[in-house]
Design goal:
There is one protein chain. β3 and β4 form a beta hairpin. The chain has two domains: 95 residues, no CATH class; 225 residues, Spore Coat Polysaccharide Biosynthesis Protein SpsA, Chain A (Alpha-Beta Complex). The two termini are 20 Å apart. By secondary structure, the protein is an alpha/beta fold.
Length: 381
């Protein structure tokens, strides 16, 4: 099964300051090298005019190297020492008979320049970090299991927009699989002028145990993101596992590829629990249609996702993270990008085809059809 890249520092194909692996930047540009420059380098740029005043025994490069080596935080707490160095170097130079360190306003100007150099170095570091994070995994990178015991309880956290007329088809897919969930069952229903009511949904689920019903207004820009954190707040903090899902296809028309897509996700993740249970015992997150080299921007740490946005996760692993409530993007892809912000590709398992392409295109379904057929055939053995 394909996997995720190791941290950049451990990648054998990464050489500091040299050519990067093939990387496409956030704006689609080709990235061939990383930005460099610490506080010392940035201060030298700001003081490039200083070089025209030659001086014997200049230690400018030595001081710049020291600042670069010690880092931004050190420079921020040692500004006075840096000002002292600047004064020493300025005293070796003169213009119109004035020693540069005696020019009126020298110290104020020096402090402004050091502050600007620190800000510039932070900007360079931020740019480096963004690019280092998004050296994408490859389909050949190995998975790294993180085994953990689970308690056998399976929870449900499900978002549903009961938009007429397709929501009942989406609900049917879930209802016929509800017995999978022997733990907490929570459903969030978002309503608007296009939808049926919360009570309509409750009536449709009559006879089935649902522990928590959440009701809120639909937000077409954020979609299932509005339900994600409130639903997860209802989940137990223990060693159980939770399935996050949503009524995929309700926005589309009858016969849309999204309807088959949604059903296939359920078949992969809910119809053969020995597979799911085995994988969740080894990996903190398990989903279908894992997609790599598709980045949601600099806020998504690892730049991958489960295409379609449904997945299982181990509660203990997720709720141990201080930032589990953070969605990487503010629009509707927040829950889809969330796994790739919580876990590296290497620690995320996939049922069925991995490293998929654009599943809105029929050609991609044709490409992965043989692998899907093999997966479903394997379950008959």
């Amino acid at each position: 099964m394909p996997g995720q890249s190791a941290p950049v520092a451990d990648r054998k194909d990464f050489k500091e300051g040299l050519a990067l692996p093939v990387v496409t930047g956030f704006n689609g540009e080709s990235i061939t090298s990383l930005p460099t420059g610490g506080v010392g380098t940035e201060l030298k740029k700001l003081l490039s005019w200083f070089g025209q005043y030659a001086a014997e025994g200049c230690n400018c490069q030595k001081h710049a190297d020291t600042m670069d080596a010690n880092g931004i935080a050190w420079c921020e707490t040692n500004v006075d020492q840096i000002i002292g160095w600047l004064s020493e170097e300025a005293a070796k130079r003169s213009v119109l008979g004035w020693s540069l360190d005696k020019v009126p306003g020298f110290e104020w100007t020096a402090r402004q320049l050091v502050a600007r150099a620190i800000d510039n170095a932070k900007a360079v570091e931020a740019a480096r970090t963004k690019l280092l994070i998004y050296i994408p995994p490859t389909a050949h990178d190995p998975l790294t299991a993180i085994p953990a015991e689970t308690n056998g309880r399976r929870n449900l956290a499900f978002h549903l927009w009961p938009r007429k007329p397709l929501w009942k088809a989406a609900a049917d897919q879930l209802i016929k699989r509800l017995d999978v969930f022997n733990g907490v069952r929570s459903i969030s229903v978002v309503v608007d002028h296009e939808s049926d009511s919360l009570q309509d949904v409750k009536d449709y689920f009559a006879g089935h145990r649902i522990d928590h019903w959440l009701a809120m207004a639909n937000d077409p820009k954020r979609r299932e993101c509005v339900s994600f954190v409130p639903l997860l707040e209802t989940m137990p903090r223990d060693t159980s596992i939770t399935f996050w899902g949503h009524g995929k296809s309700v926005r589309h028309h009858e016969g849309s590829v999204c309807m088959d897509w949604a059903e296939t996700q359920y078949r992969l993740l809910l119809d053969h629990m020995p597979t799911t249970d085995a994988l969740t015992s080894q990996f903190p997150i398990v989903g279908a249609f894992k997609r790599l080299q598709f980045n949601f921007g600099p806020n998504c740490k690892y730049g991958w996702h489960y295409s379609g946005g449904v997945y299982w996760f181990r509660n203990a692993d997720v709720f141990a993270k201080p930032d589990w409530q953070r969605l990487p993007v503010s629009f509707f892809a927040g829950t889809e990008s969330w796994p790739g912000d919580m876990f590296p590709w290497a620690n995320a398992a996939c049922v069925g085809p991995s490293a998929v392409g654009d599943l809105y295109k029929n050609d991609e379904w044709d490409r992965i059809a043989p692998e899907l057929a093999c997966e479903f055939e394997r379950r008959k053995e």
